[in-house]
Amino acid sequence: MWVRDPVSETETFARVKVPKEVLPRLVPIGGGAFVPLEDVIARHLDQLFPGMEILHHSVFRVARDADFTVSDEADDLLQAVEQELRRRRFGEVVRLEVSTSMDAHMRQRLVEWLEVEERQVYEIEGMLDLTDLWELHDQEGYAQLRDAPWTPVVPGPFHAEEGQKADLLEAMRAGDLLVHQPYESFAASVQRFVDQAVADPNVLAIKLTVYRTDDESTLIPALIRAAERGKQAVCMVELKARFDERRNISWARALEEAGAHVVHGVPGLKTHAKALLVVRREGEGVRNYVHVGTGNYNAKTARLYEDFGLFTVDPEISADVADLFNTLTGFARPRQYRKALVSPVHLREGILAEIERTVEAHRAGQQARIVMKMNSLVDRRCIDALYRASQEGVRIDLNVRGICCLTPGVEGVSENIRVVSVVGRFLEHSRIYGFQRDGESRYLIGSADLMPRNLDTRVELVVPVDDPGLRAELEDTLERCFADDAFGWALGADGGWERRSRSERCVHAELMDRATERALAAFDRE
Hints:
By secondary structure, the protein is α/β, with parallel strands linked by helices. The chain folds into three domains: 2-143, polyphosphate kinase like (2-Layer Sandwich); 170-337, Endonuclease Chain A (Endonuclease, Chain A), CATH 3.30.870.10; 342-525, Endonuclease, Chain A (2-Layer Sandwich), CATH 3.30.870.10. It is 31% helix and 26% strand. It is built from 15 helices and 26 strands. Strands 13, 17, 18, 19, 20, 22, 23, 24, 25 and 26 form a ten-stranded mixed sheet that branches. Strand 10 (203-210), helix 8 and strand 11 (232-237) form a beta-alpha-beta unit. The chain is globular. The termini are far apart. 36% of the residues are buried.
């Protein structure tokens, strides 16, 4: 605001920080109405500056660069990250948001003081920082304005007779299992898997990657219990997971105090892979039980984010995951993985090779198609390969929830490519890479988007789903996503997104119904 002293006629700039950390951003005024906290403050500025004239007031918001650089050779990596976190609030300004009503002179002064360029200034009509609208969602009542509650079901193979717990290790020995969250339960699958491993006296080791988890995680305490029981408990905690650094530091220290082996990954790389390995003594040898996911080991987001998880005892996949943990915890460097694609060495080349094999199948007159689902598509080499496949006549269907740097529908370049996005009740988060050739299909799932950061500067893990029934389930999910016309958007050749509006099919509703039907069928069989 601009404030003037009526006696000295001195004008000055003043700033009032909106204390939304300690007060609700939205203030109830009765009758179901709410007023933004900054409007309440503006209404009473005379009480904050008694005797002064308020010439003009407006709101602004500063966004700063949250990235920081920490040397992997620091003597104490945890301490180094903590020091950088304290400096984060002084990071470089990357965006200045101002209200459309802001005085031009005040706007210019902010630009000068914050040392930003004009292109970094965004005029916002209405509220700034719309994330605070979650406060409305938390209000009691208004059930008619919310989605009907959804409770994830227990997947069929994870059911147990009344009063007993499912033996997940036995179910995995019988065949690979695929869990689709949040339609199916994270607690009844992943958490149950870890709990059973902790309690099993024949389990020798439990190894887990942690990128983002929650304060109420049961997996980390379970790993602590495993360490206390004398099992080898290994946790790869990524300390540089943006905005989760403090939580991860806290969990890392708790694990170390319990005697778990805590590591922080490969120097120079973030570890984004989602892997869980259980090593069990069986007979005269050992067997590896593995879970590979597309999402974080986070019970809270597992109820909101759409993700897949593969449970398998496949010898080659489990050996690949064991090799990956050896790389993360020591100085091992596998010369070649058996089935898995791991970045930054093998993943991009593996995807490019699959695209090329699909092109060759099309040239040979075989039926060929590429289907992919991811959060973002940015990598230039992958995009160029998809363009070339389109030019060869291969049909390509892409479900890209967020950033897409590929342009579909351009004559002579990408007329055989379709791009859709689903933005609905659940956050589409799974990564699926499918290649159909001559009636056969190859599907891979994992943690990586096709972005340079995922392919070049992160440790990512993508594995094939070999079971025909599980591949069919992935394909069915993708086809429902492509058919969604309730929350689906289509990307045009002009780079614009167009909302589908027939509202005849909603992938989230369909998958909830399918999960319920499967759970009821499993219950009836028991």
